[in-house]
Amino acid sequence: SQQGEEDPQALSIQEGENATMNCSYKTSINNLQWYRQNSGRGLVHLILIRSNEREKHSGRLRVTLDTSKKSSSLLITASRAADTASYFCATETYGNNRLAFGKGNQVVVIP
Amino acid sequence: DTAVSQTPKYLVTQMGNDKSIKCEQNLGHDTMYWYKQDSKKFLKIMFSYNNKELIINETVPNRFSPKSPDKAHLNLHINSLELGDSAVYFCASSLRAGDYGYTFGSGTRLTVV
Fold first, then answer.
1. How confident is the model at residue A2 (pLDDT cuts 50, 70, 90)?
2. pLDDT value at position A37?
3. Which of helix, strand or coil describes residue A83?
4. Helix or strand or coil: residue B62?
5. For B86-104, what is the mean pLDDT?
6. Distance from CA of A72 to the nearest CA of B (A)
7. Given an 8 Å threshold on Cβ–Cβ distance, is A43 in contact with B90?
8. What value does the mean pLDDT take over residues B30-35?
9. How much helix, strand and coil, in percent to the nearest 5, is found in chain A?
10. pLDDT value, residue A80
11. Which residues are B14's β-sheet partners?
């Protein structure tokens, strides 16, 4: 099954800076979703962007989707220590009824 | 009120034992899932139920058997536990199958010794 794949990196930034992470996938999708996972916790849904959308915002989060390049990015603006977490992208293909997750990006925000 | 709750949170057991993990959601969602997260944090779907009906059964050993008595509950029973079953198991739900975000439980960390 097709999977979202983040650029496998750990990102360490200062509080107040912006954090950007990318995700690529291999086949056509119905939607792409971003999740956050704090250490030892479950995943929290952040944003869902559909294949016919190019950009979506939610608070300090901005997600872009480029279906021609099969890639997405998540931008967190004005980061806070509480944003320290792993971030996962996940894709859903038509009729597949499941999310395929990427490997996750560890983000550390230093106060 | 916890939206998706799993019990137990931690489970330590010996090889060969049988164990169950319970999951309940109070969101009124139609679809529930079991995911397995390995030590490298990779998440893989195991099962999905829609209104008590099994709709996804990934390549999972027969030792794993899900049961959904009603659409608010999805339990996972594991027979003859093996060392390789050690992982974090997450239950999740979505309003319907397809095109909705998932709500995850806090996970059950299973350690087989």
1. very low
2. 97
3. helix
4. coil
5. 94
6. 17
7. yes
8. 96
9. 5, 55, 45
10. 97
11. none
Phi/psi for B27 (5° steps) reads -95, -5
Q: Nearest-CA neighbor of B7 among B19, B28, B23? A: B23
**Contact B4/A at CB under 8 A:** yes
Among A48, A95, A103, beta carbon nearest to B101: A48
Instruction: State phi, psi for B59 to the nearest 5 degrees.
Output: -70, 90
Chain A residues within 8 Å of chain B (Cβ atoms)? 30-31, 33, 35, 37, 40-45, 48, 50, 86, 88, 90, 92, 95-101, 103-104
Tokens representing residue B44 in the block: 């893989």
**What's the confidence (pLDDT) of residue A1?**
28
Measured between beta carbons, the chain A residues lying within 8 angstroms of B4 are 42
Query: CA-nearest residue of chain B to A29?
Result: B99
Of A44, A50, A101, the CB nearest to B43: A101
- Residue A100 confidence (pLDDT) above 90: yes
Confidence (pLDDT) at A70: 95
Please state the separation of Cα B6 from the chain's center in Å: 8
CB distance A108 to A11 below 8 Å: yes
Question: With bands split at pLDDT 50, 70 and 90, how would you rate the model's confidence at A5?
Answer: low
Q: How far apart are CA B46 and CA B39, in angstroms?
A: 16
